[in-house]
Amino acid sequence: DEMKLYSPRVMKEILEKYGFKFSKGLGQNFLIDGNIINKIVEAADIDENSGVIEIGPGFGTLTQGLCKKAKKVVAIEIDKSLKGVHKETLKYDNIKIVYEDFMKIDVDKLIEEEFAGMDVKLVANLPYYITTPIIMKILEDKYKISRIVVMVQKEVANRLNAKPGTKEYSAISLAVQYRANTNVTMIVPSSVFMPRPKVDSAVIALDILKEPRINIIDEKMLFEVIRGSFNQRRKTILNGLSNKFDCSKETIKEVLQNVNIDPGIRGENLTIEEFGKISDEMSRFFE
Ligand code: SAM
Predict the structure, then answer these.
(1) pLDDT digits over 51-80, tens only?
(2) Are residues 135 and 89 in contact, defined by beta-carbon separation less than 8 angstroms?
(3) Complex prediction ipTM
């Protein structure tokens, strides 16, 4: 019979047995609600042909749900002190656990080596201290992942999902729009975690587009332009870009005028299409 890993009693017992101590610094809040776990697994749309990358299995409650549905799961956990726990909680034939910092993982290589012929999904209840860098890493590279389902702080979900002109709209909103369609699946109260975090969470699904939303000359340039425009939030795009690219305001003004964009506008009011135009003009200008 299968262990109910999400039962707080089972969790406490096993964690104590291995002398595990929760690390706040690593964002360790483990799920203790079977319903939420089922809903995350459902949102990931996993079947017997799916390969799943999980970032941060922790105790393994969500991982268990993934292993039961997927062809193969590769779970990446930074905390080696969970090794003993995993021997007990994750006795599945279709799992591989890599004890490493996700930020150091070569995801392309991993997909090639572990998931040949499979449809690859990424699922994670993300550690909050490093949510943005992880999502940027996934979005800036062209991995062959079809869907990403992540649990994040509610505020972060709002930023991932934000539209131009709102205060949540930021560089990461644009990175998401460039690559994916988003769908906030549910808001999750802090009571479903052990220990409880201070804030509510949300589960967001990102469906990766077959082709990026806009066609541009140079992707790296696009992301630099976006970052430059949001570096100092209340500054104009003219200031942001001349700082970022270390060139004169006259130059940037010329670039912006060539694509009919007001140099006095702020990044938070520009659409992804407008960023695309600026980026392409920058590429041509600095060729
Ligand atoms: N998936 C589990 C769950 O839902 O109950 C645990 C989620 S917990 C919020 C985040 C997990 O990510 C922890 O197990 C933590 O040790 C791990 N983690 C933190 N930083 C990481 C990193 N850079 N790379 C991989 N795992 C990391």
Answers:
(1) 999 999 999 999 999 999 999 999 999 999
(2) no
(3) 0.99
